[in-house]
Design a protein that fits this description.
The chain folds into 2 domains: 2-126 and 268-330, no CATH class; 127-265 and 333-358, NAD(P)-binding Rossmann-like Domain (Rossmann fold), CATH 3.40.50.720. Helix content is 39%, strand content 21%. The chain contains 12 helices and 17 strands. Strands 5-4-1-3-2-13 form a 6-stranded mixed β-sheet. Helix 10 crosses helix 11 (313-326).
């Protein structure tokens, strides 16, 4: 039987109340103080992950820091807490540990963690890329959107996920725009894409302008602040928001009935899986980054997979093949933690046509 662990952390302070309800009634500064001084702990046990080729069990480990805290605290202290969480996974018996959300972003994206433990480490980013593309292509098909003529934007293109995602999209021949805060790094990514694919992507550090022009947007920025507001999107836009915290404001759902925002990287896990912790998904569903750790455990392939900021197309295609082998599959489309129905997609299309005509 394979064994794994996955490190999670609260995205917002209100998430702490899911495990400790008393946190709802405490001052913010007090909660943050406690989180800074609490050691990582076992959040829950995961059972029932099973494919026709094997089974696996594991644990959720909590690294009790929010993204804002990770960015404001000294990096060494943050890294030590993440390493402690990985060591706890090792002590519990996990043979591979996944780094979730911001624990995969800070520092060197898992390399330092891997050097301080005796088990394999992955960020899950490879399968996140694979499922984000698959889910977005499915949504585009349902919307009747022609991806060959669409203006496709990768927001956060200089990160480990954004760069390889842009490479794969370029290999598929899509018309690409890349945006991020650092133009020098954008130019470097663009040169790599042109060298490997022959495609010449447009680059810009003007996020708002790029978003307003795009038909399809992949949001993979590690920014902790919202980057896309309701007024930024063109009618009929399709947005895949992989980022956690979200890059897209929740106000988009309320104010824009003519665009579709989907959550990338949501996967149906094979078997009768029990996570024993509610992170807002239907039973048996997980983020793709979590699923990558489970896939490698089922395969008993205990090796560092998605580490650092130089993911490869081969890593993405490789984990996608293993996922298919073990029966993992992209779940039905979801938007702001709720399922997307065909009726909603039809409504978006009608409203987009009406608003585009009136603009």
């Amino acid at each position: 039987m394979g064994s794994f662990a996955f490190i999670v952390h609260p995205i917002e302070l209100m998430d702490v109340a899911r495990k400790f309800p008393v946190a709802k009634y405490l001052p913010k500064k007090l909660v943050e103080y406690v989180l800074r001084h609490v050691a990582p702990f076992k959040l829950s046990e995961i059972t029932g992950v099973r494919s026709e080729y094997g089974s696996a069990s594991g644990w959720f480990i909590s690294c009790p820091l929010t993204p804002g805290m990770m960015l404001s605290m000294p990096e060494e202290k943050v890294m030590n807490k993440i390493i402690d969480a990985a060591k706890l996974a090792q002590d519990l018996g996990a043979k591979i540990v996944g780094l979730g959300a911001f624990t995969a972003v800070v520092g060197d994206a898992g390399i330092t963690v891997s050097r301080n433990v005796d088990i394999a480490v992955t960020t899950g980013n490879s399968y996140t890329v694979a499922t984000a593309i698959e889910g977005t292509l499915k949504a585009a098909q349902l919307m009747g959107k022609d991806m060959d003529s669409a203006e496709v934007l990768v927001l956060g293109a200089t990160g480990s996920i954004g760069r390889v995602l842009a490479l794969i999209l370029a290999h598929r021949g899509h018309r690409l725009t890349l945006t991020a805060r650092n133009v020098t790094r954008l130019e470097r990514v663009a040169r790599q894409i042109t060298k490997e694919t022959g495609m010449v992507p447009r680059i810009t550090d003007d996020v708002k302008q790029a978003v307003r022009r795009a038909d399809v947007i992949f949001c993979v920025s590690s920014a902790i602040d919202v980057l896309i507001e309701p007024e930024d999107l063109k009618p009929g836009a399709l947005v895949c928001d992989v980022a956690r915290p979200r890059n897209v404001s929740v106000e988009v759902k309320r104010k824009r009935k003519d665009v579709l925002v989907i959550e990338g990287g949501i996967v149906k896990v094979p078997g009768e899986v029990e996570f024993n912790f509610d992170f807002g998904f239907p039973k048996g569903h997980s983020y793709a980054c979590m699923a990558e750790t489970m896939i490698l455990a089922l395969e008993e392939r205990y090796e560092n997979w998605s580490l650092g900021r130089s993911l490869t197309v081969a890593q993405v295609s490789g984990i996608a093949r293993l996922a298919k082998k073990h029966g993992f599959e992209v779940a039905g489309l979801r938007s702001f933690e709720r399922p997307v129905t065909q009726e909603e997609i039809a409504m978006v299309n009608r409203n987009a046509l009406l608003n585009d005509t009136n603009s």
